[in-house]
Specification:
The protein is an alpha/beta fold and 355 residues long. Helix content is 30%, strand content 24%. The protein has ten helices and 18 strands. Helix 9 links the parallel strand 17 and strand 18. Helix 1 packs parallel to helix 2 (45-55), helix 3 packs parallel to helix 5 (164-174) and helix 7 (230-242) runs parallel beside helix 9 (312-321). It is globular and about 60 Å long. The two termini are 25 Å apart. Bound molecules: shikimate-3-phosphate.
Length: 355
């Protein structure tokens, strides 16, 4: 593929559906009672891995004409998979499903590709074991994970890292636990699980960084409209901001405040981004319009990091086009994603002449 610089970027685009919400809609749809229609589902490999895992646990899931239909089995209706569940390259699939599997009355093995087998799973094994789960992992930290039937009880758990995958694994296990489950976050991470739980009738309360869940009798299926992924919109936001003469609208973007760190940072760098057609239906959504402007460097760190964790690579690109230096701190989680995203950005931007 050969690329040459655009003179300007003008027009409007719709980017694919939100990855995090797509995963959760299939997982919760599978363990809800009733049928869930999912519109705007992201048909990326990661989310297809989630569909495949639940099909292997007996859930009937159709994917036709842009609509995914999940025929929920109810909270206790999953069945034992006949082979290891393959999460592919998807950390979200692996970590969130481990919370559900910890509480089943059957054994199951969870694994994935070479990258998944190198990603830390001890962070989910520890709290799930505290809840009573029986889990084994390679070197006590890596996939394949083997989960055995156990009865869970609620715990209060202080997360050592601001990770929505870890938080969600505990909350999913909490659905099946005896008594309340409380999770305390070091800084707010994406709250799609909590919002979807509420929409499905689960009693869950958020007080600052403290989230408390009451185990429900059952979840009641609701249809889900997945907004466009702000993590995909981020590339167009940066493109529109750095290319002179640009004016670009990205439609129907999910702007959950736990995900909009990219907007805060680009604006603090001088980007001109406006929001229109705002609506809020479980998840807030709007159209974003970006116009070219001169960007300047900034400093990023602390509590904003989980709100833009997946956008840091493209923020590095914006920083390369900005006047002055940009400093990013507290981003060590990027080293344990599907790849070491810090190393990748350093290597590739260096090739393009960035210091
Ligand atoms: C996700 C949480 C984040 C993010 C990932 C999706 C989720 O990971 O990077 O792409 O859907 O919960 P961590 O929980 O590891 O921070």
């Amino acid at each position: 593929m050969k690329l040459s610089p655009a003179k300007s970027i003008r027009g409007s685009v719709t980017v694919p559906g939100d990855k995090s919400i797509s995963h959760r809609s299939v997982m919760l749809g599978s363990i809800a009672r009733g049928t869930t229609e999912i519109h705007g589902f992201l048909e990326g490999a990661d989310c297809l891995s989630t569909i495949s895992c639940f099909r292997h646990m007996g859930v009937d899931i159709e994917n036709k004409n842009g609509v995914v239909t999940v025929h929920g089995k109810g909270l206790r209706g999953l069945s034992a998979p006949s082979a290891p569940l393959d999460c592919g390259n998807s950390g979200t699939t692996t970590r969130l499903i481990s919370g559900i599997l910890a509480a089943q009355d059957f054994s199951a093995v969870l694994t994935g590709d070479a990258s998944i087998q190198k990603r830390p799973m001890g962070r989910v094994m520890k709290p799930l074991r505290e809840m009573g789960a029986s889990i084994e992992g390679r070197d006590d930290n890596f996939c394949p994970l083997t989960m055995h039937p156990s009865e869970l009880h609620g715990i209060e758990y202080r997360l050592p890292v601001a990770s929505a995958q870890l938080k969600s694994a505990i909350l999913l296990a909490g659905l099946y636990a005896e008594g309340q489950t409380t999770v305390i976050e070091p800084a707010p991470s994406r709250d799609h699980t909590e919002r979807m739980f509420r929409a499905l009738g689960v009693e869950i309360e958020t007080n600052g960084n403290v989230i408390t869940l009451e185990p429900p009798e059952d979840l009641h299926a609701v249809d889900i409209a997945v907004p466009a992924d702000i993590s995909s919109a981020a590339f167009f936001l940066v493109a529109g901001a750095i290319v002179p003469g640009s004016e670009l609208t990205i439609r129907n973007v999910g702007v959950n405040p736990t995900r909009t760190g990219i907007l805060d940072v680009l604006r603090s760098m001088g980007a001109d981004i406006t929001e229109s057609n705002f609506r809020d239906d479980a998840e807030p959504v709007c159209d974003l319009t970006v116009r070219h402007s001169r960007l300047h460097g900034t400093e990023i760190g602390g509590a904003i990091i989980p709100r833009l964790i997946d956008e840091l690579p493209v923020i590095a690109v914006a920083a390369a086009f900005a006047e002055g230096e940009t400093v990013i701190r507290d981003a060590q989680e990027l080293k344990v994603k599907e790849s070491n995203r810090i190393a990748a950005m350093v290597a590739e931007l260096t090739k393009a002449g960035v210091d």
